[in-house]
Write a structure and sequence with these properties.
This protein has two domains: about 15-155, PAS domain (Beta-Lactamase, 2-Layer Sandwich); about 160-375, Heat Shock Protein 90 (2-Layer Sandwich), CATH 3.30.565. A five-stranded antiparallel β-sheet has the order 2-1-5-4-3. By secondary structure, it is α+β, with helices and mostly antiparallel strands. The chain has helices at about 15-25, 25-35, 55-60, 75, 100-110, 155-190, 190-220, 235-245, 270-290, 320, 340-350, and strands at about 40-45, 50, 115-125, 125-140, 145-155, 230-235, 255-260, 265-270, 295-305, 305-315, 355-360, 365-375. Helix 6 (about 155-190) packs antiparallel against helix 7 and helix 8 (about 235-245) crosses helix 9. A hairpin with a 2-residue loop joins strand 9 and strand 10.
């Protein structure tokens, strides 16, 4: 069996049973099962589960431990990538960027503790959900065979709150960049440009007030129960808002943004502030990937009960990056806070607008990001 990262080899049934029997008789392991804070599992040298604590079983919704014995961590969690390769968890093309897989493999290879953050997309009852764990893999020798003590702390809720805060400051910085550049146009520009700059500043200040109001409500309420402010919107109004945010953005210098379809007269219900945040991040990402004199195209399509927004640029996304493009803080660009643009598209559209974000990318066709939202009700 081929692998893109870790060994696909597994223990034979006899070897697995021997591992389980040896571990079950160890008083130290038994003690850890009772006192370990959070999720705790013991893995054999092939990364297979040979023991877990009750907290782990509770998270999985599993009553009989034998249902998961012999599986690997991603397989127990129903990671959507765990079975994409014949070798299972740790062997797919997505696994080289998985925090848990990296921690386990490195701990065995280097014979030292390794701690990583693992963001995993799982499937439960036909629905997908994002989980986040702080993973610590501790390798030890037991009866002359290597095992891994795996400690997982579920930090999903805290990470979502932290992410919303970082997304807020990330998006606010885009608005502030526009305000700074528009104010410079008033100070140093020609008289005919000053009136347009004042209009942009007025729009941006309203956007800034809206962003602060939304963030305040998100902090004070439960992020799962937050209700967006729905209003009837036109494509023309939306594109005008986007132009105000992006006209003087530093990434737009020397590049052209073409808005197509603003003449369409159909309307849809959505939250203007959230929608502008999502689409402006799409456009800014496209600008960042573009070179001087390149064109970024933005257009809209009316499809029955859904409105489809698309953003295109001619650059392509490398395959390895494309596999984790919506993961928080995963980016090839240097600097803290990078990687939030694509993540914010996903979390804001799916959690609050009931929408879907996807993309396609190739060297021949370039990169196209797509936002699909329901026209009649943004929160499905």
């Amino acid at each position: 069996m081929k692998t893109h990262f870790a060994s696909p080899e597994r223990a034979s049934e006899a070897e697995l049973q021997d591992d389980i029997e040896q571990i079950s008789r160890n008083p130290v392991i038994d003690g850890l099962m009772n006192v370990a804070s959070g999720l705790f599992a013991v893995l054999n040298q092939h990364r297979q589960v040979i023991a877990v604590n009750e907290t782990f079983l509770s998270l999985l919704g599993v009553k009989d431990v034998h249902d998961i014995i012999g599986l690997r961590p991603g397989e127990t969690l129903n990671c959507i990538h765990a079975n994409k390769n014949e070798g299972g968890c740790g062997t797919s093309e997505y696994c080289p960027t998985c925090g848990a897989a990296i921690a386990i493999v490195l701990s065995l290879e280097k014979e030292m503790p390794v701690e990583k953050i693992c963001a995993v997309e799982v499937e439960r009852n036909g629905k997908r959900d994002d989980l986040c764990f702080r993973v610590r893999a501790l390798p030890v020798k037991f009866s002359n065979r290597p095992i891994v003590l795996l400690f997982l702390q579920d930090i999903t809720h805290q990470q979502k709150l932290d992410s919303l805060e970082k997304i807020f400051f990330h998006d606010i910085s885009n608005i502030v960049s526009g305000l700074v550049n528009s104010s410079n146009s008033i100070k140093n520009g020609k008289p005919e440009k000053k009136e347009r700059a004042l209009d942009r500043i007025h729009t941006l200040v309203e956007r800034l007030a809206g962003e602060i109001s939304v963030q305040r409500q998100l902090i004070l309420s439960n992020i799962h129960t937050y209700q967006p402010s729905l209003h009837e919107l036109s494509v023309a109004r939306l594109f005008k808002e986007l132009e105000s945010v992006l006209t003087d953005h530093p990434e737009a210098r020397g590049k052209e943004i073409i808005f197509e379809g603003s003449e369409f007269e159909f309307t849809f219900n959505s939250d203007l502030s959230l929608l502008v945040r999502i689409l402006s991040n799409m456009i800014i990402n496209a600008l960042e990937a573009s070179s001087e004199n390149d064109v970024v195209r933005v257009w809209v399509e009316d499809r029955n009960d859904r409105t489809i927004f698309k953003v295109w640029n001619k650059s392509s996304i490398p395959l390895q990056i494309a596999k984790r493009v919506f993961q928080r803080n995963y980016s090839t660009k240097r600097g803290a806070g990078r990687g939030l643009g694509t993540y914010s598209m996903k979390i804001l559209s799916e959690k609050f607008l009931g929408g879907e974000v996807d993309f396609s990318s190739s060297e021949k066709k370039g990169t196209e990001f797509v936002l699909s939202i329901c026209k009649s009700n943004s929160k499905q």
